[in-house]
Amino acid sequence: MGSTQLPPGTEETLAATTAAAAAPGEPVEMVQLLGPDGKLGTDPVFSDYAKRIDPEKLRVFYADMARIRRFDQEATALQRQGELALWVPLTGQEAAQIGSGHASQRQDYIFPTYREHGVALVRNVDLAELLKQFRGVSNGGWDPRENNFHLYTLVLAAQTLHAVGYAMGIQRDQKLAAAADSTDPKAAVIAYFGDGASSEGDVHESMVFAASYEAPVVFFCQNNHWAISVPTEVQTKVPLANRAKGYGFPGIRVDGNDVIAVHAVTEWALEHAREGRGPVLIEAYTYRVGAHTTADDPTKYRESAEEAAWREKDPLDRLEKYLRAEGLADEAFFDQVKADGHELAKYVRSTTHGLEVPDIRDAFANVYAEQHPLIAEELAWFEEYSAGFESDEEAAN
Amino acid sequence: MATMTIAKAINEGLRASLTSNPKSLLMGEDIGHLGGVYRVTDGLIKEFGDERVVDTPLAESGIVGTAIGLALRGYSPVCEIQFDGFVFPAFNQITTQLAKIHSRSLGKLTVPVVIRIPYGGGIGSIEHHSESPEALFAHTAGLRIISPSNAHDAYWMIQKAIECQDPVIFFEPKRRYWLKGEVDVQNPGLSEDPFKAHVVREGTDATIVAYGPLVPVALAAANAAMEDGRSIEVVDLRSISPVDFDTVEASVKKTGRLIVAHEAPTFGGIGGEIAARISERAFLHLEAPVIRVGGFHMPYPVAKVEEDYLPDIDKILEALDRSLAY
B198-325: same fold as B2-191? Predict the structure, then answer.
């Protein structure tokens, strides 16, 4: 393989400390820098990456986590008020999403599943557009090319293969670019999925393809412990990060509620991928504090004590403790974050009400990219049929 | 003009696309060094290298799923599914993803993926190697489905499929791979539009619609009927989705009788769709009900009895007799 910008010895240290080295069934080491107590620890590899995060960046992490949590609350309320058909809450997973999202660069491409609202925020997707799908006015909502943030994929794990294919395309583009002495930055892809989706065959196939072609892709698995009502133990008997070893690439379990560690690990993984060293699996160990969706009732399948234990590890609380203890943020900062959250909620609420209901003619227009006689025929019938009602109305008037 | 088999014509068509479109690439199981189990991609890896003729892991969902990703990055992937009966691991990627991405992105994204599938029976093969699953895909909006019946069409239709911005499933009549025909590599002529049906034999008493492997059978049946003084028109459908109903309708309005033949089971098949549409469009011109000739409602039978299952000249003649008796 080609040269690398990784610190010397990184690979060896990783081999010793990451999940790839753990035997199946054994407890796996987890990369953690910022503990629930708000104290910053060290890691032989990732502390160097954490040092790149300056205080301003840390404040941005906090502000983004707080904003997306506030957004989540607002969207849940909108669903309860009948404004959204469904909502998929992310509370508890803010650090996993904000940390990894901020590690990505503009040229990287993101394939989310359907709970990555925090990553969407970091990628500058208009959150009102994100609600279109849940309000029933679009099956997508935003232009994926604008922010290199793909549409949500609801069929679990299907997007992991798209991510690998996209990465294979980047590989080919980069070969051409290298031949042309291009100075374009190298790119990689992140494929998000969850512990439930890890059981899908497409995850397996995507890892086989990624490994075989050394595709520049980072598999980012948020292990939030519950696939609706089924716990992770039913999906896997080994720590999910261990699975990478079977495919022949690094797997790292990171504390998914530690935004600093998530950022550091993801940045390392993306550099690894961009430099042509192949895929990485990151298992962000986190917890879905709320329900799977607003249609779900977690009291039927899990103990509230478990939820309480995870609330003690809250990603926002620990960063707040750290920022306050280190004197990196004052009361005015936290007040401002709160005010920004209210502003965002207000914006989302008002724009949701204003989301335009599309015309079914838009659906006719976008089934195919090229002319299609059946679409034309059915649309013509629909127009004639609709016109019949209009002339009835005219007659009645 | 050059004489070549359908397999060779597809090979040459792929070569032409790989040459003219630097973003096109082939991917599939055993398509590289082996040249495909039917040698359709023979020699292409030598000419274009393993980045453009990609031997993939043995995983159909993986092939189609990664092809979607490549298409999103601006490539034009052509996937080979080794046999008809092995497409189903990719069914999810084809129907829930490939077919819908253009629609769910409100037209902002296109996924110009071509999926080549050798299909159909009559080769004495084992289970899962002789099926005709086209109706399962035709039922899914967002896909286009075409199937050539001759070498000239094979050469041009594969190139047109690769040019098309919509996903195209390209069903290859595997028992006709070695059928030779004249190919004009300079001029597509009527093959220019792969989604139009062709009247391949003119007649006045009845119309037979067929596609892919059954077009030669339909032509042979028409020849046999001529001995009985019947003038039979044969339409090569070429495109299964969309169906060129205009061409079929015009033929039926002339002949008044329609037989639709395909290897796939008649129940829930393309023949039923054609019968329904033509009944609507040409009801007063029909002298007889539309009659379907196709497979039975059973898993594709074992090779030793597949002759009883497959539509052949006699079955089509029997259908013609019934139609003409009205």
Answer: yes
pTM reported for the whole predicted model: 0.95
Cβ of B59 and A205 within 8 Å?
yes
pLDDT at position A8 = 53
pLDDT in tens, chain B (326 residues): 899 999 999 999 999 999 999 999 999 999 999 999 999 999 999 999 999 999 999 999 999 999 999 999 999 999 999 999 999 999 999 999 999 999 999 999 999 999 999 999 999 999 999 999 999 999 999 999 999 999 999 999 999 999 999 999 999 999 999 999 999 999 999 999 999 999 999 999 999 999 999 999 999 999 999 999 999 999 999 999 999 999 999 999 999 999 999 999 999 999 999 999 999 999 999 999 999 999 999 999 999 999 999 999 999 999 999 999 99
What whole-number distance in Å separates Cα of residue B203 and Cα of residue A11? 74
A173–B93 C-beta distance less than 8 A? no
Kindly report, residue by residue over A22-72, the tens digit of the pLDDT: 454 555 799 999 999 999 999 999 999 999 999 999 999 999 999 999 999
Helix (H, G, I), strand (E, B) or coil at B316: helix
- Residue identified by tokens 């032409």 is B16
Q: Does domain A23-358 match CATH 3.40.50.970?
A: yes
Q: Do B73 and A162 touch (CB under 8 A)?
A: no
A152: chain B residues, CB-CB within 8 Å: none
Question: Is A373's CB within 8 Å of B73's CB?
Answer: no
Its CATH architecture, for the domain B198-325, is: 3-Layer(aba) Sandwich (3.40)
Q: Are A209 and A271 in contact (CB under 8 A)?
A: no
Other beta carbons within 10 Å of A305? 8
Tell me what the pLDDT averaged over chain A comes to.
92
Residue A161 and residue B92: Cβ atoms within 8 Å? no
- Give the 3-state secondary structure percentages of chain B, helix then strand then coil, rounded to 5: 40, 20, 40
Spatial contact of A162 and B97, defined as CB atoms under 8 Å apart: yes
| A141: three-class secondary structure by DSSP | coil
Catalytic residue among B33, B128, B129, B285: B129
Partner-chain residue, chosen from A153, A208, A369, that has the shortest CB–CB distance to B59: A208
Domain ranges of chain B: 2-191, 198-325
Dist CA B242 CA B164 (whole Å): 13
Q: Does B297 qualify as catalytic in the annotation?
A: no
Instruction: Check pLDDT > 70 for residue A9.
Output: no
Q: Which of A165, A362, A365 sits opposite B68 (nearest CB)?
A: A165
Q: Is B266 on the interface with A (CB under 8 A)?
A: no
Residue of A nearest to B27 (CA): A165
Q: What is the ipTM of this complex?
A: 0.97
Omega of the bond prior to B242 within 30 degrees of 0, cis? yes
> Which residue, B86, B246, B78, B126, is CA-closest to A374?
B246
Query: What CA–CA distance (Å, rounded) separates A244 from A259?
Result: 22
Apex CA B208: angle with CA B205 and CA B209, to 5°? 145
Residue B138 to residue B142: CA distance in whole angstroms = 9
Burial A89-107 (b: 16+ CB within 10 A, else e): bbbbbbbbbbbbbbbbeee
B39 with B8: CB under 8 angstroms? no
* Distance from C-alpha of A135 to C-alpha of A139, rounded to nearest angstrom: 10
Which class would CATH give B2-191? Answer: alpha beta
